[in-house]
């Protein structure tokens, strides 16, 4: 069934959504963090997940590259139905490691805390995954890396080590690192939450530029105004449920949604 | 003989240098194997698989809890007997010299590995989780993650402990003299006893050990500067 599904995806690759999540459920111990989330991210669009702390938005995002393994539900990402191992009750108990590595080369992530590798230079950080995971030569990877460092305005610091950069600069390098894999889908996990206020805009500017290029992105953010501006789709999460979703206009004009967002907005 | 031809350092220079060389060889080999055992031990201790964790815990706890001198004697006699039996069985008895060197290396490596296990375990746990998560999130294989991220990430934390263990190891090679193997300390004891110039030879031994440890400390300092290249020095 997976092969026919993959085939169906491939033959409609221009219209197939980058993500189709169906009824995702995730527990941490007794706590149910995601209570049946269904979500589609169309190719070439930006979706922002917003909501209060603890609403499950980071967990949902982390399910998209399987840093978190959902306990139940279906997931198709970048043309592939994820093959979960399930017990007879249908609970997810395992993953296909090969598929996982393939998936993660196509879905890359920008973290709240940047998570650059401190022993590698800026360029070293950006070319590491293309070399180790996509098996590009150093020359090919460096060309890619320089291109994307240029794109985020960090080309002049290519030989610096991350610890010598500001938070905003580190996050821009982290974005270049995610771009250098030329992914189908970019995930952003609160990319500006760890930044000094005066550094937020340089990072948001880069993300806005990527949205304008038509990249497929899924964003978790507290920056409501930014989310409203760049997103094609807003998803408001409340205690593990999707409380509201739609275009930013729909969500912000719907009185019921506004009520939800009142404390946050 | 007592007063007519006192034996001096010159007479013993050759054997002493040979002994020093043997000591260095034992130490380097034992250290290399100890590093490997330590990595395996730390890997096992951090493994999600309980039997493996248990095995590593027994190893590092037991070895670190028993005096090394005792371990050397125990492993020497048990190890030599086992090896003799094996060689006899294969009809190759008589490789005594090799057995002594191998035992010295084997025992010291076994002890080093136990201490190294704890040094590496702590150093790996001190790597910020996000750095490892980033490697996983980009689809690194386990091997790529280990040798490109975990290893260079833990070395700054591990090197001070590793350098400590190296110094201890050089000095522990002297314990090997109890099994009558011709390393530096054993040779010095022979020289001192035969010439009765105890102070002279033991002082010479002290100087040689000091030279070995000082030069290796300089090496470790450079190594540490290299693995910390990405870290700002304290202003």
TrEMBL record, chain A:
Family matches, as SMART domains: AAA
Source superkingdom: Bacteria
Annotated SUPFAM superfamilies: P-loop containing nucleoside triphosphate hydrolases (SSF52540)
Record carries keyword Zinc: no
Domain ABC transporter: 19-264
Membrane topology designation: Peripheral membrane protein
Pfam families referenced in this protein's UniProt entry, alphabetically: ABC_tran
Keyword terms: ATP-binding, Cell membrane, Membrane, Nucleotide-binding, Transport
Compartmental location: Cell inner membrane
GO molecular function, one term: ATP binding
PANTHER family: AMINO ACID IMPORT ATP-BINDING PROTEIN, L-CYSTINE IMPORT ATP-BINDING PROTEIN TCYN
Family listed: Belongs to the ABC transporter superfamily.
Protein name (record): Amino acid ABC transporter ATP-binding protein
UniProtKB/TrEMBL annotation, chain B:
InterPro entries: AA_ABC_transptr_permease_3TM, ABC_transp_permease_HisMQ, MetI-like, MetI-like_sf
Topology versus the membrane: Multi-pass membrane protein
TM helices/strands, residue ranges: 20-42, 54-77, 89-111, 165-186, 198-220
Gene3D superfamilies: MetI-like (1.10.3720.10)
Domain of life: Bacteria
SUPFAM superfamilies reported in the protein's UniProt record: MetI-like (SSF161098)
Swiss-Prot/TrEMBL keywords: Amino-acid transport, Cell inner membrane, Cell membrane, Membrane, Transmembrane, Transmembrane helix, Transport
Domain ABC transmembrane type-1 positions: 20-220
PANTHER family assigned: CATIONIC AMINO ACID TRANSPORTER, MEMBRANE COMPONENT (PTHR30133)
Similarity comment: family membership: Belongs to the binding-protein-dependent transport system permease family. HisMQ subfamily.
Protein name as it appears in the record: ABC transporter permease subunit
Organism expressing this protein natively: Halomonas llamarensis
